[in-house]
Design goal:
Blueprint lengths: L12 H4 L21 E5 L12 H13 L5 E3 L11 H14 L6 E4 L5 H14 L3 E4 L8 H12 L4 E5 L10 H4 L6 E4 L4 H10 L3 E4 L5 H7 L3 E4 L6 H8 L3 H6 L1 H10 L1 H12 L8
Parallel strand pairs: 1-2, 1-8, 2-3, 3-4, 4-5, 5-6, 6-7, 7-8
Helix pairs in contact: 2-3, 3-4, 4-5, 8-9, 11-12
Length: about 280
C-alpha cells in the first residue's frame, strides 16, 4: 500500500464503502468535513417525452444506485444538465432525491454559477431543499476565487462546500495551490489529468474527489477521499471496484468511459435507456 502525504491508502473494497465523514484540514473558513468517502454518482436528470423534468424517475434512479453501492448522490450538476433547469425544477429534484435515498447518504447539489451572487442564491435554495453539501464550479476566468467560495460557504450555512475543477465547463478552473486558502472541504477534479491528481494528493490537505472514471485505479489506492462519477449512472459496481484498485474493473470500464467522454450526457442516457428503459431525451 502507498500513502502520499496525509492521505490514507485504501486496502480493500470495504474501506471504500464507508459512509461516515471525518474532520480534515484545509479551507480558510467554513465547513471542513468530508461529506463522504468512497464512490458517489453524478446523477443524470430524467426528462419525460414532453421535455419536462421527472423528479420521481430521477429519484428512483438515485435510490437504485445507492442500493448498488453509491455513497453519495450529486444532483443538478453538469451531468444533470443543470444549466437547463429552472430554480423550481432544481428544488423539486433535490427534494425527490433526498426522499429517495437513505438518510445516511448525503445529497450534494450542484450550485456553480457565473457569479457569486447567483451561486449563493442557488446554494441557499439547495440547502433549504435538503442538500447536505454543495459542489460549485467557479465563474469562468474568476480572479477572486476566495470571495466567490466565501459567498457560497456563507449561503451553505455550515454545510460542506466542494470546489469543482472542470476546465471544460469553467476555464481555467481551480489551481491546486489555491485550494488550501479557500473555505471549502475539498475538491472534485474532473480534469482526468493524472499529474494534477498526484499534485492534489501530495500537496492539498483537504479531500480530493476524482470526477474522471479513467483514473479510479490510481486515485483510490493513492488515498483520494472518493470519486463523483457520471459513469456510475450505468456502471456503479465496476466504478467501486476500480476505485478499490481493481485493474481489471478499470479496464472493463474503458468502452463506456470513452463513449461517455466523446458524447457526454447523451451517451449516458442512451446506455441507461438500453439498460433500464428510461427516457433518453436531453433538455433542449
Amino acid at each position: 500500500m502507498v500513502t502520499i502525504g496525509r492521505k490514507p491508502a485504501r486496502p480493500n473494497v470495504e474501506d471504500v464503502g464507508v459512509k461516515e465523514s471525518s474532520p480534515i484540514q484545509g479551507g480558510a473558513s467554513g465547513a471542513t468535513t468530508e461529506p463522504f468517502r468512497g464512490v458517489g454518482v453524478a446523477l443524470v436528470t430524467i426528462f419525460g417525452d414532453d421535455g419536462e423534468v421527472d423528479p420521481g424517475a430521477t429519484g428512483k434512479l438515485a435510490g437504485d444506485l445507492v442500493a448498488r453501492g453509491m455513497q453519495a448522490v450529486v444532483v443538478c450538476g453538469s451531468t444533470g444538465e443543470a444549466a437547463t433547469l429552472t430554480g423550481p425544477e432544481r428544488v423539486a429534484l433535490i427534494e425527490a432525491v433526498r426522499g429517495a435515498v437513505p438518510p445516511g447518504t448525503p445529497v450534494i447539489a450542484g450550485t456553480g454559477a457565473p457569479s457569486a451572487r447567483q451561486a449563493a442564491a442557488l446554494t441557499g435554495d439547495a440547502v433549504r431543499a435538503g442538500a447536505e453539501a454543495v459542489l460549485a464550479f467557479p465563474p469562468p476566468g474568476s480572479r477572486d476565487l476566495a470571495g466567490y467560495y466565501k459567498a457560497v460557504a456563507s449561503a451553505a450555512g455550515g454545510r460542506p462546500v466542494l470546489a469543482y475543477h472542470y476546465p471544460l465547463v469553467s476555464a481555467p478552473g481551480v489551481p491546486v495551490d489555491a485550494l488550501a486558502g479557500l473555505p471549502v472541504a475539498g475538491v472534485k477534479d474532473s480534469s482526468g489529468d493524472p499529474d494534477r491528481l498526484l499534485d492534489e494528493l501530495a500537496h492539498y490537505p483537504g479531500a480530493t474527489y476524482v470526477g474522471s472514471s479513467a483514473v479510479l485505479a490510481l486515485a483510490g489506492p493513492m488515498g483520494a477521499a472518493g470519486a463523483i462519477l457520471a459513469l456510475a449512472n450505468v456502471e456503479p459496481e465496476r466504478c467501486v471496484a476500480a476505485f478499490a484498485g481493481d485493474a481489471r474493473a478499470q479496464f472493463e470500464l474503458a468502452g463506456r468511459h470513452l463513449d461517455a467522454r466523446r458524447d457526454g450526457v447523451a451517451a449516458l442516457k442512451a446506455m441507461l435507456a438500453a439498460d433500464r428503459g428510461t427516457p433518453a431525451g436531453l433538455r433542449q
